């Protein structure tokens, strides 16, 4: 009997798993699905409210996302000061791209008052959570969105996945994002562009954060649709 031939395994090219994970975050940088045809009865009120809100463009405008360009921006980005005002400057397609609260406000049509705060007093936040009949510990640093009524749960879900800087977890939410939700619900003055800008600055200090704020960066840079690796933004749905 002839000896059995050993089947040699095909060599596989090793890939950097961390790099792969960083560049393929599937549940952030989404655009919200706001049920324009009104088919989801349970969400009809909150989706209509969001369609008429000042964050509508920020959460629904879909820009083609090019991973290579987002990575290029964050790898080259720095905070600089021009005429006494802070900017984040990076490169996209080898061109300088500046991001500032004023630019974000204009591009995302947020209608922000430049003098409005970008945070809400914690006591106001807690009082609103009580009125929302939140069943979580309102004195904790985070709450679980599952402990809110359906309408507020959906609103927070949209904010987490379209605007937040969160990189892990999609249920636990810190006081900063809760403050934004409270400001929107109570129609209190709140500078959302400053809020996003501050989170982008924090993003600069973190490692492995080269896929965050994709929509905002490419909205600002107005990059032409060349042959770049594209990561399609998915629709955000309440869970």
In a nutshell, what does this entry contain?
With 239 residues, the protein is of the alpha+beta class. 39% of the residues lie in helices and 12% in strands. The chain is built from 10 helices and 7 strands.
Question: Would you give an account of this structure?
Answer:
The protein has 239 residues and is an alpha+beta fold. Helices cover 39% and strands 12% of the residues. The protein contains 10 helices and 7 strands. It has helices spanning 17-22, 44-51, 56-60, 67-76, 101-108, 122-131, 150-162, 175-186, 192-204, 214-221; strands at 31-32, 78-82, 85-92, 95-99, 142-144, 172-174, 235-236. The strands form 3 sheets. It has a 3-stranded antiparallel β-sheet. A two-stranded parallel ribbon has the order 1-7. Helix 5 (101-108) crosses helix 9. The longest helix has 13 residues, at 150-162. It starts with 16 loop residues before the first helix and ends with a strand.
- Helical content (DSSP H or I, runs of 4+): 25-40%
Q: Determine the structural class based on helices, strands and strand pairing.
A: alpha+beta
Distance between the termini: 62 Å
Low-confidence stretches: 1-25, 223-239
Overall geometric form: globular
Number of strands: 7
> Counting H and I runs of at least 4 residues, what is the number of helices?
10
Summarize the biggest pleated sheet: 3 strands, antiparallel
Average per-residue pLDDT, rounded, comes to: 79
Spatial strand arrangement across the major sheet = 2-3-4
The Cα radius of gyration reads 21 Å
Note the beta-strand portion. Answer: 5-15%
**Helix-strand pattern, N to C?**
HEHHHEEEHHEHEHHHE
């Amino acid at each position: 009997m002839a000896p059995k031939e050993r089947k040699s395994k095909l060599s596989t090219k090793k890939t950097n798993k961390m790099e792969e994970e960083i560049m393929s975050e599937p549940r952030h940088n989404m655009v919200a699905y706001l049920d324009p045809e009104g088919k989801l009865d349970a969400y009809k009120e909150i989706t209509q409210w969001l369609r008429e809100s000042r964050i509508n463009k920020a959460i629904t405008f879909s820009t083609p996302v090019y991973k290579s360009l987002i990575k290029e921006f964050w790898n080259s980005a720095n905070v600089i000061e021009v005429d006494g005002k802070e900017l984040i400057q990076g490169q996209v397609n080898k061109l300088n791209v500046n991001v500032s609260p004023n630019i974000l406000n204009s591009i995302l049509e947020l209608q922000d008052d430049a003098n409005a705060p970008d945070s809400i007093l914690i006591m106001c936040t807690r009082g609103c959570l009580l009125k929302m009949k939140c069943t979580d510990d309102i004195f904790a640093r985070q709450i679980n969105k599952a402990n809110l009524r359906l309408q507020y749960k959906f609103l927070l879900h949209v904010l987490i996945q379209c605007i937040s800087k969160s990189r892990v977890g999609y249920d636990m939410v810190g006081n900063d994002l809760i403050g934004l939700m409270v400001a929107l619900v109570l129609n209190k003055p709140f500078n959302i562009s400053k809020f996003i800008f501050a989170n982008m600055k924090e993003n600069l200090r973190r490692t492995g954060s080269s896929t965050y704020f994709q929509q905002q960066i490419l909205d600002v840079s107005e990059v032409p649709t060349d042959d770049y690796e594209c990561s399609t933004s998915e629709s955000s749905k309440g869970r």
